[in-house]
Amino acid sequence: MIIVNTDFISGKEIETIQLVKGSIVFSKNVVRDVFAGLKTIIGGEIKGYSEMMSEARQQATERMMGEAALLGADAIINVRYSTSSLMASAAEIIAYGTAVRFKK
Q1: Domains and CATH numbers, the chain
Q2: Is 69 strand, coil or helix?
Q3: How would you classify residue 78: left for phi > 0, otherwise alpha for psi between -120 and 50, otherwise beta?
Q4: Are 60 and 22 a contacting pair, CB within 8 Å?
């Protein structure tokens, strides 16, 4: 499946199906929090959180692709990601875009 953040796919005529999305709610790990707290003292990337966010984005993307596949989509255009905090130790990542079919 082709996934782009533009509203077109070069060389393809497309037919819009509908909005598709995938989301995941994840919680912080206490061990990661301790190391993250220490890292904020000296500065720099908090790799544990970077990896966690990357995995969460991947899972949200896969769920979005699954929804599009069920609709018979060939691609998803205008893909965006959003995050929101649900409570002090949990957040949601959502991937969303427009499922499309290629015109023959």
Answers
A1: 2-102 (3.30.110.70)
A2: helix
A3: left
A4: yes
